[in-house]
Design a protein that fits this description.
mainly alpha; 1% strand; single chain; globular; 17 helices; two-stranded parallel sheet; Growth Hormone, Chain: A
């Protein structure tokens, strides 16, 4: 059998998937990037919806902020279960159905949160919504990694991850406009309806991963049509292979992830995700409340989280580009160093409106640039560390274990604020950054610098 590379029209020819997908960006690949990115924007918005409305809920329900620590934590527990579970489902049944199911789930349950009458109802709904919120990212990252030209993969997956803080930027602007006029219930309803509508669009327009289809034998013969949409000359009789990502031995996903070849990186990625998500979620969960209780208005409290997320968007874009040029190891260490310095400065900042709102917002933007920015690059690294057969499961496991850091942030953040105020809170983030840096030193499959990869 002959290898036809990009031209598989000859009888008996074999087409390598990488030769098609790595040649140039096709319209289909751009569509996949846009649709998955939009899904994660809404994931990021719904993920932070409770943080946006928390100051208003504290006032309306007349509860202390410690009462909401369990709500924040069960949401993250749901995300932990969802990331690992939906990652496995994505490897078993396909990235597309798993992603659509997750988007539909978190949309419906976020909308239902707008009807809550007490904290018990809210706790249950945020846990169930967390299952979908946690499961969306592993499948989105796998889809992007498997559709994107290899030279752009780190930046493309970083773009997908950056959509989480981008959703926070969108949510912060929307909250500042809607919350004072329409209340927190309207915000939950809007944050839920949009993902439900998107799930319907994904069902029609989003294709399945070609690499997943190849490994499942393409029973419905969808590969030829997908390859033609990306510019390949193929027929229904064309045979496909994937030389860039060889098949791995058979066996259970857990066994392979913890095999001698994968164990080091699997465990190190889990630890790195734990600490970066601890720092990121500490900011996302507690910044609006921290700012509001320092004497700022509710609108400025929402804008503070928006600024933090703008920093995260910028950090992910710059970090994704830098990882492709200088390598992911150097890029991640540079981002974490910036975050460590910003945390120490914020630990000594006055936080009174008299100390300067602009200065505070600038520092929060730098912290967002570093910590959520590093988290986005780390997601891109995870999408390349694991092989195709394990990609959704591996990324989901890393993010799922990492969510324990977010769960920890809900309680530890409240404890540090109660124990020694804002200074101790930001020192906690600095310690989390040190933990992430130590874990990254163990990972040995970083994205290489461009010169080394050439």
């Amino acid at each position: 059998m002959t290898s036809a590379g990009f031209d598989g029209a000859r009888p008996g020819a074999t087409v390598d998937l990488a030769s098609v997908m790595d040649r140039r960006w096709s319209g289909l690949q751009v569509l996949v990037l846009f649709l998955t990115g939009f899904a994660i924007v809404l994931d990021g918005f719904d993920n932070q919806a409770l943080a946006f409305v928390l100051p208003a809920l504290l006032q309306e329900w007349d509860l202390p902020r410690s009462a909401f620590a369990p709500v924040l934590s069960v949401s993250l527990i749901g995300m932990t279960v969802g990331a690992a579970g939906a990652g496995y489902l994505g490897d078993r049944f396909g990235r597309k159905p798993a992603l659509i199911g997750c988007v539909l789930l978190f949309g419906l349950l976020t909308a239902a949160a707008g009807l809550c009458e007490n904290i018990g109802q809210l706790t249950l709904l945020r846990f169930l919504a967390g299952l979908g919120l946690g499961g969306a990212m592993p499948n989105a990252a796998a889809l992007i990694a498997e559709f994107t030209p290899v030279r752009s993969r780190t930046l493309a997956v970083s773009f997908t991850a950056v959509c989480v803080p981008l959703g926070g930027v969108f949510g912060g602007a929307l909250t500042a406009a809607i919350l004072p006029a329409l209340g927190w219930r309207s915000l939950f309803l809007l944050a839920g309806i949009a993902p439900v509508a998107l799930a319907l669009l994904l069902a029609v327009w989003l294709p399945e991963s070609p690499r997943f289809l190849l490994r499942r034998g393409d029973p419905n013969k969808r590969l030829p049509a997908l390859m033609r949409r990306m510019g390949a000359e193929v027929t229904e009789a064309t045979v496909f292979d994937d030389r860039a990502e060889p098949m791995v031995p058979s066996g259970g996903e857990r066994e392979r992830l913890l095999s001698p070849a994968n164990r080091r990186n699997t465990l190190a990625m889990c630890v790195a995700f734990f600490f970066t998500l601890l720092g990121a979620y500490a900011g996302m969960n507690w910044l609006p409340t921290l700012i509001a209780q320092a004497g700022y208005s509710l609108a400025n409290a929402s804008l503070a989280l928006m600024v933090f997320n703008i920093g995260g968007v910028t950090g992910a874009i710059v970090g994704g580009w830098a990882a492709g040029v200088f390598g992911s190891r150097r890029t991640l260490y540079a981002l974490l160093a910036v975050g460590f310095a910003a945390s120490l400065v914020l630990a000594r900042f006055g936080f009174s409106p008299a100390d300067g709102t602009l200065a505070l917002f600038c520092l929060l933007a730098v912290l967002g640039f570093a910590v959520p920015g590093a988290q986005s690059v780390l997601t891109a690294v995870a999408a390349q560390v694991f092989p195709t057969e394990l990609r959704s499961t591996g990324v989901g496991l890393s993010i799922g274990v990492g969510r324990a850091g977010g769960i920890t942030s809900a309680f530890v953040g409240a404890s540090f604020l109660a124990w020694s105020g804002r200074g101790a809170f930001f020192l906690m983030i600095a310690l989390a950054i040190i933990g992430a840096a130590l874990a990254l030193a163990v990972v040995n499959r970083h994205t290489p610098a461009r010169a080394k990869a050439a």
